[in-house]
Design a protein that fits this description.
With 484 residues, the chain is an alpha/beta fold. The chain is built from 14 helices and 13 strands. The structure holds pyridoxal-5'-phosphate. It holds the Pfam family Pyridoxal_deC.
Length: 484
């Protein structure tokens, strides 16, 4: 059978003709994608959910699975156009709400090959080179996190959520008594969810100042718990990008015998930058670390990593299944992959991460992280100079938190939704405490993960926020101090 024989919808991506068949279909998909991007005039389709639903209905949405197919070319072109036209595109600087990065083309290209070869990471006989590449990459990640610990190891996860679950799971499995999670008021929601999933008591919540855990308050919380506690600190909070004082927290944990897991899903890749790494100093003192390469790292979702200072802790994940890792196979030298995850079938996400690091080096990745952090500092300066805007504080990573001066929470929320509905900007929101009494205030945030923008690219966006706030209040917009 030749490269273009038969119904193209039944072609296989692998095998002798796989590459040439993909080379036939991929241009069609990309053609559709390019058309969709042209259709969209901003970072997200305008008109909100109703308009997106209407586009799909107009395109022949049936609400039932189609009984007859339209063929590979038409389906690919049609759906690729729909997706690209209706996407929230983080490669547009105005799409900056979440820790939602624009993936690097090199990683996406690598993922095409990974998907075509489809190694499944649950047994060596499904993934010989993929598992070898993964192991090598993970040794590198373990060394990046714990340079002084040759016994460190790392595994791939679906993201910070799964990594935080593993952090608490390993704490539970390596501690004799009932483990008690302790986390900052600034911690990610997945920490208390992990405690719930694992049947652990709800976390003891340590108060924060400026979105950072207060060390004295942690020491106080640990006093009655001692070695039965597992502390979760955050290196890069979701709301503001603040970094907990990791060194001090690690010292307090040592003194009380508590385990320490650092949620560095956002800030972990600062390790790649010589100038920024000192900001997360103390990370290497943790027992385990969560880091996400689908934030800084510019990978498509999912690209989560979990590093353990002591590889032996990961043996808690060991499990036997006769059909995947029989004892005699393992004894005969076949690597046991099943114990490297809580999942069974697993995509080779490490492949595109490894290709990316091979292409850029950690130095190249670090330079991109630096760009984002510099841009955030500069955008915050624009906010500080703008008479109609108020800054929450200086960015520690790449999150700029601000609000229109004099706005109440309702206006802040409406400004965000108005811009979203218009399709002109995707801005985040966060309720931040105003004091120790539990009251909070709503702020807007830009999470800057676009590695090729400068502050200049956000001038118009800030002016738009000001103009929208003025329009919502029914007053004329003040002039921009920057553009004028
Ligand atoms: C993103 C993030 C998470 C959740 O990670 P997922 O990859 O979405 O599962 C957890 N903690 C922090 C601090 C994060 O920034």
């Amino acid at each position: 059978m030749g490269a273009s024989d038969g119904d193209s919808a039944t072609w296989l991506a692998g095998g002798r003709h796989g590459a040439s068949r993909l080379a036939t279909l991929i241009p069609t998909a990309l053609h559709g994608m390019a058309a969709g991007i042209t259709e969209r005039n901003g970072p997200i389709p305008s008109g909100g959910p109703a308009s997106v639903a209407a586009s799909l209905a107009a395109a022949g949405g049936t609400k039932r699975l189609p009984k007859t197919g339209i063929g590979a070319e038409q389906a690919l072109e049609h759906y690729s156009t729909l997706l690209a036209a209706g996407t929230a595109d983080p490669a547009d600087p105005s799409c900056a709400a979440h820790l939602h990065c624009p993936p690097l083309a090199v990683s996406v290209a690598a993922d095409v090959v990974a998907a075509a070869m489809n190694p499944s990471m649950d047994s060596w006989d499904q993934a010989p080179m993929a598992s070898e590449l993964e192991a090598e990459f993970l040794t590198g990640i373990a060394h990046l996190c714990f340079p002084a610990n040759p016994t460190a190891d790392a595994v791939v996860t679906s993201g910070g959520t799964e990594s935080n679950l593993l952090g608490l799971l390993l704490a539970r499995e390596t501690t004799a008594s009932t483990i008690r999670p302790v986390c900052g008021a600034n911690s990610h929601h997945s920490v208390s969810r992990a405690a719930w999933l694992l049947g652990l008591p709800a976390p003891v919540v340590v108060p924060c100042q400026d979105d950072r855990m207060i060390p004295e308050a942690l020491a106080e919380a640990l006093a009655p718990l001692g070695a039965s506690a597992v502390v979760v600190a955050t290196a890069g909070t979701t709301n503001t990008g603040r970094i907990d004082p990791l060194g001090e927290i690690a010292r307090i944990c040592r003194l009380s015998g508590a385990r320490l897991h650092v949620d560095a899903a956002y800030g972990g890749l600062l390790l790649c930058s010589q100038s920024l790494a000192p900001r997360i100093a103390g990370l290497e003192l943790a027992d385990s670390v969560a880091l996400d390469m689908h934030k800084f790292g510019w990978q498509p979702v999912a690209a989560g990593l979990f590093a353990a200072r002591n590889a032996a802790d990961l043996s808690a994940l060991t499990v036997r299944a006769e059909y995947l890792n029989a004892d005699d196979d393992t004894e005969a030298g076949l690597p046991d992959l099943l114990g490297r995850s809580i999942r069974t079938s697993r995509r080779p996400d490490a492949f595109r991460m490894a290709v990316t690091v091979r292409a850029l080096g950690t130095q190249g990745l670090g330079a991109l992280v630096e760009r984002c952090c510099t841009t955030a500092t500069e955008v915050n300066e624009l906010v500080e100079r703008h008479p109609a805007l108020q800054s929450w504080g200086k960015p520690e990573l790449s999150t700029v938190v601000f609000r229109p001066r004099g706005a109440d929470d309702d206006l802040v929320a409406r400004v965000r939704r108005t811009l979203l509905e218009a399709g002109t900007a995707v801005i985040g929101r966060g309720a931040l405490p105003t004091g120790p009494d539990g009251t909070s205030q709503l702020w807007l945030k830009l999470t800057l993960l676009h590695p090729h923008t400068t502050a200049e690219d956000y001038v118009e966006l800030l002016d738009r926020v000001v103009a929208t706030a003025a329009a919502e209040r029914g007053v004329p917009a003040p002039q921009s101090p920057v553009a004028s």
